[in-house]
Every structure is written in C-alpha cells, then in structure tokens.
Amino acid sequence: MDLCLMIEGQEGVTWPQWRALAEACEQHGIPTLFRSDHLQNLDGQHPERGSLDAWGTTSALSALTTKLRFGTLVTPTSFRHPSVLAKLVVTADHVSDGRIDLGIGAGWHEREHEAYGYPFLSASERIDVLEEQLQILMGHWGEDEFSFDGAHYTLSGLNAQPKPVQRPRPPIIMGGNAGPRSAGLAVRFADEYNTAFPALEQIKERKANIDQACERAGRESIPFSVMAGAVLGADSAEVQRRARVVAAATGWDADGLLREPPPGWIVGTLEQAAEQLAPIREAGVSRVMCNQFVEPDVEQVGRLGELASLLS
C-alpha cells in the first residue's frame, strides 16, 4: 500500500511552498503528490486564502522534479472545456515525461462556481457532463480521428497532437461513494477508484460495489484508494502540536481530534498510525492519499516517508 501526499491548494499554498513540498516528496520517497483543483477557500471564512491553478502548478513542478508523480483530486468538469483539459493533461504529461494522473469528477462546490461564473448544473446533469468529458478525453488521446455529438459538446474530425507520453493514456482516477452510476462510469473509464474520508466499513462496502461492477462488466477489479486526513508525529508531543495547528485552522477541538479522530483520519505517532493503517490495507486499499488539510508542512512530508518505511 503506497502512501501519497495530498495538499488542499485552495488554502493559500504559495509557489515557494509548492516547490518545497515537491522537493521534500522526492527526498523522502513519496511516490505521488496530489492536489485539489479548487478556485477559492471552501469554508467561506478565509477569502484571503487563494489558489494557484492546479494544472499550471502541476506542469511547473513536473519540470523541477525527476521521480515524483503528480495528480489532481479532483479536477471538476465544470471548470474547463474537455478539449482544454485534454491538452493541459497532455502538456503536463510531456513536461513530466509520463508522471501524471488525472483525477476527474463532476464538481460539487456551488459557491465557487457562482463566484467565478461557472454554471452549476443539477447533480444528474453534472454526471452527464462528466460522462461526455470522459468520452472526449479518450477521443483526444486515441489514435483515430474523433468526432462527438453530445448534449453538451460537439467535436468534428479531431486528430489531437501530440499524443500523451503515457500510452494508451495517463491514468484516470474517479471517485465518490461508489453508487451505481459512479461505479458504472468508473468501470468504463477509470484506472483507479478513490473515496474520501471513509470509515473502515464504508471502505469495505464501496470497494465491494466497485469490484462487483467490474465483475459484471467482465473487467478485472481496478485499484481502490482512500483519501485520509493525517496528523503524524515522531512522539506524542509532536502529534499534539500538529493537532493544535489543524484545530486552529479548522475550528475543531484539538483534544477531540486526538481523543477520537473523525472517520477517515490517521492521527498519532508513526507506530500508532501504522496500526490504524493495517486494517485499511487488509481491506484491499492500494494507496492512501494523506491529506495535510491545512497549511503545507514539509516536516510532515518527512514523517510520511518514515511511516511508509515502517509499513514496508
């Protein structure tokens, strides 16, 4: 089970901080750095916390690294035309020489859509758009000339060049709660399914849904991953200090976070974290995207690398 780093880019992460995070990941053997693709702070309480563009930072960081993979969790379909998204992913794929994953979803945060002028469709329509975008991405990256006539997009006689470095295409990550339509799209298009902040029983249930959907479609099961909050420390004092930082940024109770972490959180010393991760690995999870949740902390990247070594 791989441990990856997940950063909420809309929490005011600066370019020097992104560089430091990527350098720390390479130094400590973290295989992939994921970031959110949001345009503004989501709680509405911190408008001063900005967000550099997800694909702009991904391409730039790719040029500064040699081993680290990058990905989005997740890119909403509403922010970019699928042809623009396909070209951005291919560009990052070329800059990185094939170190890019695309996490893609239907979008969910209504306020940022309103603020930036993007239509916020009904849930069913957003899934319709997601399905069309996935088909168009495949057409962009395929070998044959491609045309598409859907309810939301029309393309005619496309032969997009260049093709991705990764063939047949960069890996696609989809996610959610593994409901029928989400699972159906994942079986058709995805290389991995991710679920965010789940309890252990939810992991088992959602993974079973994805496995069953794959079996019905005659496809081998796809890897199943989890996004989890992470508060790690070499000792209890460091864990407590980090918990206070998270509590101050979120308004949570630090003692409560330490005493009874919310579902989908790994909180404790490295040894305690390894114990908490053991049943997740036994449930068949292929990797955990460990979310720092608040301001980026290079020290936590080092702890994550130590935890990965402890698990290996």
How far do the termini sit from each other? 8 Å
CATH topology: TIM Barrel
User: Could you tell me the number of beta strands?
Assistant: 12
Residue ranges: pLDDT <50 for 5 or more in a row? none
H/E element string? EHEHEEHEHHEEEHEHEHHEHEH
Could you tell me the mean pLDDT?
96
Number of helices: 11
Q: Largest sheet at a glance?
A: 8 strands, parallel, barrel
Q: Which word captures the global form? A: globular
Looking at the overall shape, the CATH architecture is Alpha-Beta Barrel
If strands are numbered along the chain, what order do they take across the biggest sheet? 1-2-3-5-8-9-10-12
Radius of gyration: 19 Å
Q: What percentage of amino acids are in beta strands?
A: 15-25%
The CATH class label is Alpha Beta
CATH superfamily: Luciferase-like domain
Number of domains: 1
Instruction: Tell me the structural class.
Output: alpha/beta
What level of helicity do the residues show? 40-55%
